[in-house]
């Protein structure tokens, strides 16, 4: 690929996006500088705990935030700046250019209309075809997202569909709009694990059929593993690591990413090996102290982590994009030392100075960690 091909290949470009919400309790700094590029046809996973700013970032892209939100930065769809467009102008973008799929399919479906009618409306909105053709396409789309007996199901109402099937209908509607970008915000979070896999498969089908690029948002790093090309990890309103799926899963360089991996069930681990959750919770976004927001939960934290928030910077040895940019970035003062750490060692309750590499020393202000194994409490220091 040439450099210019890559530049024009970018469908969605988010730059230095910040979102503040003035509230009675102070200003919530929900998004504190998010930048990413989405290239044509690629799937970018955005991962982070609840409250890390994933939804607010996407709602800002879609122009769906409440009027009270203070938004700055840039959101470009191909060559068009989206921030600052009027509601009417954004209506033109939503659906046909960028489609959004939410956790609850009923936010997108109308309970009083038949499934077929809602699909046909989407088809008619973007194609100059007859009602009959639109209905045929509706059946076809239901089939594409693996709804059984689509010719019968097309005449049913949303309440006659299961949760997983409703979500697949929403995906079919997104396809009918033939978008360039699909943003799916926790599309499988409300579903059983077995149904999750089917819905993810339908999402892939939608992506293949439309050739759309996709932003797949989830709090579950396990969900994006088989789906995404690249992963962006968010913490406290900011990206803290971004890289290819291989970078993130096999060479994570931010302790938070490592912690997320350690709390995932792993097939390649012995059964009795317990999962190692990250203790504590994310900070309040109203009065963030200086420094890295992950410090109070980080087993590797040092003095500098409390005073200076690290920038997102290239990881040594990272690959390059065709445009000559580094692919793997991490926001950690100790990103080189994070390499090859085992999350179970790093985040386990029994972690002490003895189990940490000497160069890290004691963690200042380390939080108390509860060891679920034997019921005793140990501190990392
Ligand atoms: P995520 O999707 O990662 O779980 P969100 O993007 O929904 O997190 O929220 C990020 C932060 O912004 C949270 O602290 C949330 O409480 C806050 N927030 C979201 N919407 C509003 C709003 N309308 N007013 C005030 N705070 C908000
Ligand atoms: Mg959310």
Description:
By secondary structure, the protein is an alpha/beta fold. It has a domain at 255-268 and 275-284 and 287-365. Helices cover 31% and strands 21% of the residues. The protein contains 14 helices and 14 strands. It has helices at 3-9, 54-62, 87-93, 115-126, 131-144, 150-153, 163-176, 193-210, 221-225, 245-250, 255-262, 303-307, 335-338, 343-347; strands spanning 10-23, 26-39, 43-47, 70-77, 80-81, 98-101, 181-185, 213-218, 230-235, 238-244, 313-314, 329-330, 368-370, 377-379. Strands 6-7-8-3-9-10-12-11 form an eight-stranded mixed β-sheet, sandwiched between helices. The chain has a four-stranded antiparallel β-sheet with strand order 2-1-4-5. Strand 4 and strand 5 (80-81) form a beta hairpin. The radius of gyration is 22 Å and the shape is globular. The model is unreliable at 1-7 and 350-381 (pLDDT under 50). Magnesium ion binds next to helix 2.
Shape: globular
Give the SSE order as H and E letters.
HEEEHEEHEHHHHEHEHEEHHHEEHHEE
What is the share of helical residues? 25-40%
Record the strand order, biggest sheet. 6-7-8-3-9-10-12-11
Secondary structure tally, helices:
14
Give the beta-strand count. 14
Radius of gyration: 22 Å
């Amino acid at each position: 690929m040439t450099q210019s091909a890559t530049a024009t290949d970018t469908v969605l470009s988010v730059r230095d996006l910040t979102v503040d919400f003035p509230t009675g309790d102070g200003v919530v700094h929900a998004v504190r500088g998010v930048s990413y590029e989405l290239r044509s046809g690629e799937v970018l996973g955005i991962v982070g705990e609840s409250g890390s700013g994933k939804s607010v970032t996407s709602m800002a892209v879609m122009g769906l935030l409440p009027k009270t939100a203070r938004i700055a930065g840039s959101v470009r769809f191909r060559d068009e700046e989206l921030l600052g467009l009027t509601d009417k102008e954004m209506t033109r973008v939503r659906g046909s250019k960028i489609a959004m799929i939410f956790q609850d399919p009923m936010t997108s479906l109308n309970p009083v209309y038949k499934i077929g009618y809602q699909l046909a409306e989407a088809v008619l909105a973007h194609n100059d075809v007859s009602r009959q053709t639109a209905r045929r396409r509706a059946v076809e789309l239901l089939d594409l997202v693996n709804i059984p007996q689509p010719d019968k199901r097309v005449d049913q109402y949303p309440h006659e569909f299961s949760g997983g099937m409703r979500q697949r209908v929403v995906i079919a509607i997104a396809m009918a709009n033939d978008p360039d970008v699909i943003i799916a915000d926790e599309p499988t979070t409300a579903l059983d694990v077995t149904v999750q896999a089917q819905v993810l498969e339908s999402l892939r089908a939608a992506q293949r059929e439309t050739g759309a690029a996709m932003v797949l948002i989830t709090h579950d790093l396990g969900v994006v593993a088989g789906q995404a090309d690249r992963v962006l990890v968010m913490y406290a309103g900011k990206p803290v690591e971004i890289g290819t799926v291989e970078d993130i899963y096999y060479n994570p360089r931010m302790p938070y990413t490592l912690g997320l991996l350690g709390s995932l069930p792993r097939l390649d681990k012995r059964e009795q090996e317990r999962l190692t959750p990250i203790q504590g919770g994310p900070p309040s976004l109203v009065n963030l102290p200086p420094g890295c927001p992950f410090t109070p939960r980080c087993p590797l934290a040092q003095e500098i982590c409390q005073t200076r928030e690290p920038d997102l910077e290239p990881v040594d040895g990272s690959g390059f994009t065709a445009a000559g940019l580094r692919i793997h970035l991490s926001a950690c003062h100790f990103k080189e030392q994070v390499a090859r750490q085992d999350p179970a060692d790093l985040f386990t309750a029994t972690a002490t100075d003895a189990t940490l590499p000497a160069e890290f020393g004691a963690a200042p202000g380390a939080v108390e960690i509860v060891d679920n194994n034997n019921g005793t409490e140990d501190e990392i220091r």
